[in-house]
Amino acid sequence: MTFGPVMSRLPELLDGALDTLVLSGQSIAIGLAIGLSVALVRVNGPRWANIAGSIYVEAFRNTPLLVQLFLLFFALPFAGLRLSANTAAVIAISLNLGAYSTEIFRAGLLAIPKTQIEAGLALGMSRFQVMRYVVIVPALRIIYPALTGQLTLTLLGTSLVSAISATDLTLAGSMIESQTFRSLETFILVAILYIAMTFAFRLLYWAIGLWLFRRRVHTGDAAAGMMLVPGKADL
């Protein structure tokens, strides 16, 4: 194996890796927002909204991401809507992640006992406060491992966008391979970069989980301690 011709094009691979990170970040942010919104509608919304959410989830979970990319990029122009390759990629991946994360969020929401919600309301909390502190945060703790695993798969799934010529690491590797004819060497480096990005994302998720959940635990312990310590009026 000769890595020289490929290593000389390393800046192009790094640019492709940066494009993949940007694409993943945008898609994850939009996809999680979609997933949480649809999950809340399916759990607490009217029947018609639950049905619409179910149709969306089943449509995107039972078709390949590559097919969804093709439909958005090639079929929408027939309806008068032409999207750039990168825009179509972000929309397709966001909708795909939204469908999968909907079911993950819904599982967490359904795991919260109704008595816990009723207790929050009985304490005088608003519905927004109950949803935020009593439902969403404890549900997120339950689903966090499954959710971060799905986000990692989303990062790796961005490699499919090269099929519609959206800029990413795989497309950069394909262009270098076609010009240097060093297929094995090129995709060995591409694989190494994907592994590095995956571990970086997993480290980020671990740090976020450590900060979020330990902070919540410490806050909860402090609140519990305040409830147990008698005030001046009790002495």
List the helices and strands and how they pair.
Elements: H1 4-7, H2 10-44, H3 47-61, H4 65-75, H5 85-110, H6 114-122, H7 127-157, H8 169-180, H9 183-228
Helix pairs in contact: 2-3, 2-5, 2-8, 2-9, 3-5, 4-5, 5-7, 6-7, 7-9, 8-9
Fill in the keyword field for this structure.
235 residues; mainly alpha; disordered C terminus; single chain; 80% helix
Task: Tell me briefly what this model is.
With 235 residues, the chain is mainly alpha-helical. 80% of the residues lie in helices and 0% in strands.
Task: Outline the structure in words.
By secondary structure, the chain is mostly helical. Helices cover 80% and strands 0% of the residues. The chain contains nine helices and no strands. α7 (127-157) packs antiparallel against α9. The radius of gyration is 23 Å and the shape is flat. It starts with a helix and ends in a 7-residue tail after the last helix.
Mean pLDDT: 88
**Sheet with the most strands, sense and barrel status:** none
**Helix fraction bin:** over 70%
Tally the beta strands: 0
Low-confidence stretches: 218-235
Total of DSSP H or I helical runs spanning 4+ residues: 9
Helix/strand order, N-terminal first: HHHHHHHHH
